[in-house]
Write a structure and sequence with these properties.
By secondary structure, the chain is of the alpha+beta class. It has a domain at 241-509. Helix content is 47%, strand content 13%. The protein has helices at residues 9-71, 89-99, 107-232, 349-358, 414-437, 444-450; strands spanning 241-247, 252-255, 268-272, 286-297, 300-307, 319-321, 332-336, 362-367, 373-376, 383-385, 397-402, 440-443. It is elongated, with a radius of gyration of 69 Å.
């Protein structure tokens, strides 16, 4: 039916717009419904996919958990890329493989390696077990052999023990018998020892008393011997030769000793009176001294007079003597004390050595200026420490010559007192040794007189040396100003008597 024609235009426009709206709305609704159905379809599909994924995730998670249980490493995190972290599954598995000491990247490879090793070890075990079985079999065989030997030894031991028991019984009887004998002897020995001790005590007391008596008698005997020797001047020495001819004008003599007597040059002799009371007895019978200057023939030598007495001139037939030389024999001497040959207060020990050795004699014992005792050995001028308690002076020693013995009370320094003390100690020891050996003890002055020793004196001649003047009051000129000539007092016929010791202590030991 057609619309009425009398409707207004606005109404028609409104109706038309409304219709258009409904059409548009209907279209939009249709489109929305389509989209909704599409979205719904897609949502349904997504939900199904998600459910599948969730089911797959659950399966993977279950399998992962089962795998962790299987490996024994229940970590929450797999730890991919973090191999050093043992709290994660991968790091823990790798640590387990490393502990197994196999260089394998997977558990399976590691297990296969360990299985191979285990198989090898089982094989080695089986081989070792086989060897062990063989060894055990051998041990059983050896044990059987050992048992046989043990049984044999046991049988022998039983027999030996029986024999030993019998032997011990017999030995016990012997031991008891011997022990009884020992006890009897011990008792007797103890009784004898007691008697011996009593006897020893009695004899010791007797010896002590006798020693005291002997010491007293020895002291008395020594004193009497010294007094008798001083009175009698007993000497067993004999003259060595005699004067054959004398030239008083030139101070020369000729003696009956020469080359055949092994007489050395420069040997000095003391000259005795014809009616002497014995040579080497003292110095009273000495009237001069000579020094050999030339060996003429077998039994003739020339000598110069170095000392004579105007009141007792040297004559033909006068005996000559020196203790330090004997034809065909070497003499030995011992010395103790300060050796001062010229009285100048200085030690002349070296000069004494030269004097003795020059005559062919030796020094067998000596106490030096420091108080040290020394003994001459085999070679000339060689001395060694004598040592305490070793005998020194013996029957081969001719004289013990006593030099100056300083007074220890006059020493000031401790070292001087010590030296003098040692000299005094050895003076007594050497004196005792000399008495025991029958060696004569003489003083140094007598010894020097007997050997005809004369000290060398220097003579100063005024004007003899240019430019030298002796100052007033000067006691002794310097050495380099001495003329070097020997005093005429000991050359020719005008002679002086030898000086004797003044009895004063040597300046070597202080003032």
């Amino acid at each position: 039916m057609a619309a009425p024609q009398n409707k207004p235009i606005g109404y028609q426009v409104s109706v038309g717009v409304l219709l258009m709206g409904w059409v548009v709305f209907g279209t939009l609704v249709y489109m929305d419904q389509k989209n909704i159905r599409q979205v719904t379809t897609e949502n349904l599909k997504s939900t199904a996919d998600r459910q599948k994924i969730e089911a797959l995730e659950r399966k993977v998670r279950e399998e992962f958990e089962d795998l962790k249980k299987l490996t024994g490493n229940p970590g929450d995190d797999y730890g991919l890329g973090d191999d050093q972290n043992v709290s994660k599954v991968r790091g823990s598995n790798l640590a387990d493989i490393a502990k197994a000491a196999v260089a394998e990247p997977t558990h399976k490879a590691a297990i296969n390696t360990l299985v191979q090793r285990s198989t090898a070890r089982e094989q080695e075990r089986d081989e070792a077990r086989a060897k062990l079985d063989e060894a055990q079999k051998l041990i059983i065989d050896l044990q059987k052999q050992y048992q046989v030997r043990v049984d044999t030894q046991d049988a022998g031991r039983v027999k030996a023990e029986g024999d030993l028991s019998v032997s011990i019984k017999n030995k016990d009887e012997e031991v008891r018998a011997k022990q009884k004998r020992i006890d009897d002897l011990t008792t007797a020995a103890n009784e004898a020892a007691a008697e011996l001790e009593n006897e020893k005590a009695a004899r010791a007391a007797e010896v002590k008393a006798l020693d005291a008596q002997i010491s007293k008698l020895a002291a008395i005997n020594g004193k009497l011997s010294d007094e008798i020797d001083e009175i009698k001047k007993t000497s067993f020495e004999i003259a060595d030769g005699e004067i054959r001819w004398v030239d008083h004008q030139n101070g020369r003599v000729w003696i009956n000793l020469g080359e055949a007597d092994n007489l050395p040059k420069r040997m000095t002799f003391s000259i005795y009176t014809k009616n002497h009371n014995g040579v080497a007895r003292g110095s009273n019978d000495i009237k001069g001294a000579i020094e050999v200057t030339r060996i003429i023939d077998a039994h003739t030598a020339e000598a110069r007079i170095i000392k004579d007495d105007l009141y007792q001139p040297i004559a033909k037939g006068d005996p000559i003597f020196t203790p330090i030389w004997s034809p065909g024999r070497k003499e030995n001497f011992s010395f103790v004390g300060i050796i001062d040959l010229d009285g100048d207060g200085k030690s002349d020990r070296q000069k004494l050595h030269e004097l003795v050795s020059g005559a062919g004699a030796t020094i067998d014992n000596e106490v030096d200026d420091d108080g040290k005792r020394i003994r001459y050995m085999k070679f000339p001028n060689e001395f060694i420490d004598h040592g305490e308690g070793v005998p020194g002076i013996d029957v081969n020693t001719k004289f013990l010559v006593i030099g100056e013995i300083p007074d220890i009370a006059l020493a000031v320094k401790d070292e001087d007192k010590a030296r003098i003390g040692l000299i005094l100690k050895h003076r007594k020891i050497l004196g005792d040794e000399a008495k025991q050996q029958g060696v004569r003890v003489v003083n140094l002055n007598d010894f020097l007189s007997w050997i005809g020793y004369q000290p060398q004196r220097r003579l100063f001649v005024p004007g003899a040396e240019k430019g030298y003047k002796l100052k007033a009051g000067e006691r002794e000129p310097p050495v380099d100003k001495v003329s070097g000539q020997v005093s005429g007092a000991i050359n020719g016929n005008k002679r002086i008597k030898p000086t004797t010791s003044g009895g004063q202590n040597s300046p070597l030991f202080g003032k």
